[in-house]
Amino acid sequence: MVTLGQSLTEMGLSLIPFSFAVYFPYRWLEFFWQMGYSKLIKGIWYLCLGTMYISNNIEINTVVTYVCFIEAWDLFFEQLEKNRASKHG
Predict the structure, then answer these.
(1) Whether pTM exceeds 0.70
(2) Tens-place pLDDT, residues 33-67
(3) Contact 14, 61 (CB under 8 A)
(4) How far is CA 5 from CA 24, 31, 57, 63, 82, in A?
(5) Residue 23 CB coordination number (10 Å)
(6) What does the DSSP assignment read for 13-54?
(7) What's the distance, CA 24 to chain centroid?
(8) Looking at residue 81, what DSSP letter applies?
(9) What angle do helix axes 2-33 and 38-54 make, rounded to 10 degrees?
């Protein structure tokens, strides 16, 4: 079980920079297309973070840094969505 956890953690750490880079333009497009999958993506990130907390992984600072930037970007778009909703209704 420990080996499986370590393998998943290593795979996650190798995918995080790619998903991080894709999230920024995706969130922008989601705002314009008015779709709603960013919460699912963030949920996966938080699941990864929680798994790293449980396993006491040293690389947790890397994930926390990515999550902070993603959360900041998401809050920016949540404000834009709120402003759009107040103008239309």
Answers:
(1) no
(2) 877 777 777 777 777 777 777 777 666 677 778 77
(3) no
(4) 28, 35, 10, 16, 39
(5) 20
(6) HHHHHHHHHHHHHHHHHHHHHT---HHHHHHHHHHHHHHHHH
(7) 10
(8) H
(9) 160
